[in-house]
Each structure stands twice: as C-alpha cells, then as structure tokens.
Amino acid sequence: MRVLVFGAGAIGSLFGGLLSRAHEVTLVGRPPHLDAIRANGLRIESDAESFLVRPETAARVPSGSFDLAAIAVKTYDLHDACAALAASGASFRWILCLQNGIGNEEILRAHFPDETIVRGLVYNGVSIESPGRIVWFGHGSTWIGRPLVPAQDGEADLEIEDLASALSAGGFPARRAEEIGREIWKKLAVNAAINPLGAITGLPNGALVRSSFLLSLLRAAVRETEEVARAEAGYAIDMVERTMEIALVTGRNRNSMLLDLEAGRPTEIEFLSGAIVRFARRRDLAVPVTRTLHALVRGKEEALRVRSADRSVASRAVRPLAEDNRRTSERERSEEENNHSTTEPLS
Ligand code: PAF
After folding, report:
1. 41: which of 13, 16, 52, 159 fits an S-S bond (Cβ 3.0–4.6 Å)?
2. What pTM does this model have?
3. 294-307 burial by CB neighbour count: b if 16+ within 10 A, else e?
4. Which residue's alpha carbon is nearest to atom 9 within ligand 1?
5. Going edge to edge, which strands form the sheet with 24-28?
6. Distance, CA 124 to ligand 1 centroid (Å)?
7. 256: CA distance to ligand 1 center in Å?
8. Which residue would you say has higher pLDDT here, 197 or 153?
9. Across the chain, which distance is largest between two alpha carbons, in Å?
10. Active site residue ranges
11. What are phi and psi of 26, to 5 degrees?
12. Measured distance CA(299)–CA(304) in Å, rounded
C-alpha cells in the first residue's frame, strides 16, 4: 500500500513507523521531529523491543495517488488537515481518521465522499520522547469502520476487512468493527474519564486506578458517558472494567491531554467531556462528574493562556529596559573611548 500520514505527532509516528516495515509510507509533519526522522530514522521503543524504521518524510502533501491517507492531527486541527489534503491534488482511496472524540466524521464529510471515510479507534499509549524517538506503552488493537455508510443487514464490509488485514500485516493490528458507532462511544467513555483526570492531576494512566479517590471519579465519569450513550445513540455499553484495564495496560503513559497541557497546546476536551455535557443537556441528564472535569480542564487551559500572556507582557516590559541598558553601555563605552583618545598622548 502507498500510505500518507498527515500529522507526525505521537500516534501518527507510531502508525506510520510500524506500517513502514511493510508498506510505502510518507510522514507529513514538522521540524524538529521530522528533520530527525529524515536524518537518522524513527526509533520506536517499548518494554519488549527497540527498533529503527525509515519512513519517507515531507513538509507538505506530495502529489500522486495513495491507497490510504491517515489523519493524525489533533481534533481541533481536523478541518484544516482535511482542507490541506483535499487541496493538495493528491488522490486517496481511503481517509482514515485516528483522532479521539465524537462527531469527527462530520468534519471529514465536508471534504471527502462518505464511502471513503473510515474511523480508527486506537488504544495505544505513545509519546514523543525526543525528536526522532517515540516510546510505546501498552499495545492495543485498533477498531476500524465506515461511520457514514449504513450497515447492510448482517453483511460484513469486505473492503474494510481488507483494509484491516493490510494494516495488521503491516504491523499495526486492526479489526473491522461490526458497529463503528458503538466503538466511537466506547472510546469516548475511556477518553472522557482517563484524559481529564490525568490532565488535572498530572499522573500517568496507571496511577488513576491505584488511588481510591481518583478511581471513584473515573468510574463515575464512565457511568455518565454510558448513560448518555444510551439516551443519545441507543447504545448499551459497559465500559467501567475495560477503562480500568486500559488505564493499567497503558499504565506508564501520560495521556495525550496531559501532554497537550504540558506543551501549552489546547486540549481535545470539547470533543470529549464537552460533547458529553452538551448531549446530556439536550437529553436532560445530570453528568456532574463529567461537567466538573470539563470545567477544570477548561480552567487549566485558561490559566496556561493567562500565564503565557503575562510572560509575553513581562518580556515586552523587559525588552525596552534591556535595550536602554545596551544603549547606555554603548554610550558609556564610546564616551570612555573618547576620553581615552583625548587624554592619550599623541605620538
Ligand atoms: O488519548 C490517549 O492518551 C489514549 O487514547 C489513551 C488510550 C487514553 C492512552 O493514554
């Protein structure tokens, strides 16, 4: 397969890096991570192994035709990513969307035909440790399916079966979901519990289930999403145990929302807890824990914004002072030189 990965963050790098062992993969991303991959390859480390792969890299979408474009940017950048792919002139058989969150396919459908759009629900913990090096904690299977193509009664989507086999053969285990809508809600339940709790406390996933205080919040958040899933989409999902299991399997991972906050980036909170709060309001359901987690993460985002604005005001205030200092010392130096030249004896 010819594969394009748009967004070489942690998940995009893992996806592209693993597939590059069996397929022709181009990673589109930014320096310094991409420069390091171009120069030295991409190192993937886990408890079990450490290996180097060499996918192609590009600063923008190359022309030509690709079997698959995997979009691995943050959910809030999805619209721009789709616009860039659609305007690139390249053609794609499949558009695979790897983000967390609900409703992402509605953004994709403004740019690509419904039947080409595939959602991928990924349960891997991965982070970029340094440019060109990622660490992979907890390997999970990825569920894929077409959210915008109505399921045919009892019929498997054979094309999606083939895509799952091609991804698995390439080293990225994937399975066709019988009902991708249900899988989207299940993943939402996981992310709307683990991600804000980790982001607020600064703890890795495993620690969230080892603290009885945090565990009770995690369970309550999952139950609230289960209730909203039933009311909003008619799905009965049972995700408390599974979420705890995922937190343990990815135990050493610091989740993507925590990493976003630490890097001063916006988070995906509006596509996770924010979406649940909005659905709950519409259905007249109380989701007190989710509402609180949502508000706390928004508060953290605001605090970071204020702090970085303060820093830039402070640096603007310091700059003229520094400039004054430089000018004063230049003036003093030149006066000193003049004094020297007048006091020194002429030869
Ligand atoms: O967003 C994340 O970090 C991941 O979806 C998961 C599975 C919670 C692992 O950290």
Report:
1. 52
2. 0.88
3. bebbbebbeebeee
4. 125
5. 56-58, 24-28, 2-6, 65-71, 91-97, 117-121, 142-145, 174-176
6. 6
7. 6
8. 197
9. 105
10. 187
11. -115, 125
12. 9
pLDDT tens digits for range 107-138: 999 999 999 999 999 999 999 999 999 999 88
- Report residue 86 as tokens: 């659609």
Q: Is 250 in the pocket of ligand 1 (CB under 6 A)?
A: yes
Is the C-beta atom of 99 inside 6 A of ligand 1? no
b/e map of 139-148 (b: 16 or more CB within 10 Å)? Answer: beebbbbbbb
Contact 194, 255 (CB under 8 A): yes
Q: State whether the beta carbon of 142 lies less than 6 angstroms from ligand 1.
A: no
For the chain, give the number of residues.
347
Probe target for ligand 1 pocket from 11, 191, 261, with the most ligand atoms within 8 Å of CB: 191
CA of 286 to the centre of ligand 1 (A): 25
The number of beta carbons lying within 10 Å of the beta carbon of residue 68 is 22
**Ligand 1 pocket mutation pick from 253, 271, 293 by most atoms within 8 angstroms of CB:** 253
- Count of CB atoms situated within 10 Å of the CB of 32: 10
- Our answer on whether the CB atom of 255 is closer than 6 Å to any ligand 1 atom is yes
Among candidate residues 130, 244, 159, 131, the one with its CA nearest the CA of residue 197? 244
255 CA closest ligand 1 atom index: 3
Look at residue 153 in the predicted model and tell me its pLDDT: 63
- The Å distance, Cα 195 to ligand 1 centre, comes to 7
Domains of the chain, with CATH numbers?
1-178 (3.40.50.720), 179-340 (1.10.1040.10)
Query: CA 141, CA 123: separation in Å to the nearest integer?
Result: 6
Q: Is the pLDDT of residue 346 over 60?
A: no
Q: Contact, 126 vs 134, CB < 8 A? A: yes
Q: Is the dihedral of CA 145, 241, 222, 198 positive or negative?
A: negative
From the alpha carbon of 123, which atom of ligand 1 is closest?
Answer: 7
When the pLDDT of each residue in the chain is averaged and rounded to a whole number, the result is: 91
